[in-house]
Amino acid sequence: xxxxxxxxxxxxxxxxxxxxxxxxxxxxxxxxxxxxxxxxxxxxxxxxxxxxxxxxxxxxxxxxxxxxxxxxxxxxxxxxxxxxxxxxxxxxxxxxxxxxxxxxxxxxxxxxxxxxxxxxxxxxxxxxxxxxxxxxxxxxxxxxxxxxxxxxxxxxxxxxxxxxxxxxxxxxxxxxxxxxxxxxxxxxxxxxxxxxxxxxxxxxxxxxxxxxxxxxxxxxxxxxxxxxxxxxxxxxxxxxxxxxxxxxxxxxxxxxxxxxxxxxxxxxxxxxxxxxxxxxxxxxxxxxxxxxxxxxxxxxxxxxxxxxxxxxxxxxxxxxxxxxxxxxxxxxxxxxxxxxxxxxxxxxxxxxxxxxxxxxxxxxxxxxxxxxxxxxxxxxxxxxxxxxxxxxxxxxxxxxxxxxxxxxxxxxxxxxxxxxxxxxxxxxxxxxxxxxxxxxxxxxxxxxxxxxxxxxxxxxxxxxxxxxxxxxxxxxxxxxxxxxxxxxxxxxxxxxxxxxxxxxxxxxxxxxxxxxxxxxxxxxxxxxxxxxxxxxxxxxxxxxxxxxxxxxxxxxxxxxxxxxxxxxxxxxxxxxxxxxxxxxxxxxxxxxxxxxxxxxxxxxxxxxxxxxxxxxxxxxxxxxxxxxxxxxxxxxxxxxxxxxxxxxxxxxxxxxxxxxxxxxxxxxxxxxxxxxxxxxxxxxxxxxxxxxxxxxxxxxxxxxxxxxxxxxxxxxxxxxxxxxxxxxxxxxxxxxxxxxxxxxxxxxxxxxxxxxxxxxxxxxxxxxxxxxxxxxxxxxxxxxxxxxxxxxxxxxxxxxxxxxxxxxxxxxxxxxxxxxxxxxxxxxxxxxxxxxxxxxxxxxxxxxxxxxxxxxxxxxxxxxxxxxxxxxxxxxxxxxxxxxxxxxxxxxxxxxxxxxxxxxxxxxxxxxxxxxxxx
Amino acid sequence: xxxxxxxxxxxxxxxxxxxxxxxxxxxxxxxxxxxxxxxxxxxxxxxxxxxxxxxxxxxxxxxxx
Lengths: 919, 65
Fold this sequence. Notes:
Chain A is 68% helix and 5% strand. Chain A is mainly alpha-helical. Classes of the chains: A mainly alpha (919), B mainly alpha (65).
């Protein structure tokens, strides 16, 4: 049995655990070892998008129209694909300008306008109320269902509880207290709530696990997998239509598309999403992982929505159980007490995560962009003279949190009962979508102005109120229902559900179309009609060109006036406390090689800008501007001056870009030249070497020829035997000379590409056997055993027959030269493999050392010790052979182990022979 | 810088592809009776296309080029 007390105790234990996690993360952050500096935590914290709506409401939606719940998650996935372009830019802008909230962003973009910031805050608070009420409704009704365990009774049947037992109110109050303890313990100049982010990431895990647990239980525990479940659902006549759900839904595809677009906006502009994605982001690089991890999370939490929906429809066919509660009631119906409890905790974590982040984000907005600007303008309060305002700031935020939650509760009481969860949430989505034109326009279009944004937002918000908020109140009988049936005062054209007679759309769809037409139209129209002020012009450039303008080209350049260091310091200390102010000034001073305090620190434009940005981190851009303005004497810049500075800045940027590019090109050209020069030097060296080697090689035989002819000339009496011997040597040396000269000529021809190649289809078997026959005498003389392993038949290769014989002769005569003197043995193998003929010539000589293997194919390379060994050839044979083989598209190489013989191999492609034969 | 721009353009293209995949008329092609692995065709299609889209995004986000 689950008692109310047990459930409450467990809930509080869970909240306590969250608090512990947050506390631990804060401690770690203070110690300089933040836990949230991880892309995984960042991705999980983004999953605060999945609220009680996802946890309970998706199933409810799926039970009525099948796939209708999915655009809410597919839209964000599509938007996230654009994050690389859009969110990266917003992140960069926000970091540079110390943006603290959505309202601050909009205000800052349009000339630090306090009015605009206030308007965005009001829209956000009013727009989000339905969403908060949704969470309260989900938590309170899931609690009220769970306490009835094992009975399943809908809360509506129990009847209204007295205020003392009103669960929703208690939930609101407890969450308010919890959020205050969580998010407003101290004031952070950067508005980072590391503890909160850690706790939210943990909550994301809990709700995912709880939901997957129910999904697995229903799909595989109650039924036999997806196939079984869907087959049984399809067998029910009542559910058959849901197998092809697009036809059944009113509005069908258009509805689907609008929901997708709406969700695309929501993932960017819900205050809590902006808070976790932008404000709490600690590293831009985390985006790379979040771009796919967060969509993965959404996919995972949706896989079991349909099975649970169909499971619920099959289990409770009579419609007595609200589909929004299937996630909880299915385990209860199956008497799974613990699972039901886990679901309740999962739902609680989904709801609390949303409420905590949303109210913290809203409270920052209310404080910085609504209350403070007003208080600061009221001179009677003399806020400027108070020494420390941090307490006031925290107080305002705490008040805002309580107020937001109580308003959410009020909305729940007024309108919440009449709608399903998803319908309530969509009203909020439509409200925050109104920010899209002002923000997206603001970061990509310099022409958007303050007046345009202000009017556009007002117009869109007015349409939203009229087409969504008013009907919600009317449905709950707080306004006459006749308004929805016949329009106000009986004017049909003004019917909030069919404005100007537009029918056939669902309510959200209808509201989106009209509000977006009004919003975008007015934003663009007014922006084009009204010219911007100097402030707006400057901010527009800073935002749109954030990637182009470097930090130095930023805000400080636009300030001209006089200020004093102590006044600026006091200002910062009043809002941040003196410790933070000291730290900020010390950082600024050390960046300029000074120490704080130091009299040399000048109150120049840089310092004023620095203080303003620091202050903006605590009280928002608009208020910071007002406060800084109160302590410095500023000379207003005219719009022409701002333009001039901007043009100058962008010209400088363009100029330096061009300069950089030029110098890069120059560097590249230099490198190329240097390389060419190196190559020329190398060629020159090679040529010298070649000439000296050739002359050296020519001189050796010449010397011996000359020596012997001189002997013969000088001694006419020489006996015949001796004479013949000397003449023999002379002939041999002459032959060697001729061979050398021929080879040099040959090489020159091949290398210059002037060699004549007679290409024909050559049978390598013939080449090998011809060569062997020609060399037979030599083998016998040297007593060398020769083994030739030739296949029966091989493909022909396209080559020059004489050249191939030259290659074989060269390889074989090398082998003869180097093979073992006593037991000479040479093996020749021919094989065909993968379109290539391969010839191996193996000997059993002393082999070639690894160092020589690389060099052996270069010109004039002679293996062996140059001092002791007699040269065995010109050193050109292998080089020429390789050139020949490569000319015919083959490859030549050597494999050898020193002392174990060598194997020279080459390959020739067989494919080309066909073409030659045909020709 | 141009590398970042190229990747940005690839992401935009991916988003457009996604819009195409989850829209009329492609959706209508799968809005028919019949099942895929025991799951009604439309439901199966949406989840498979979704997973493929995420996989492409992961590849693009994590690749160096």
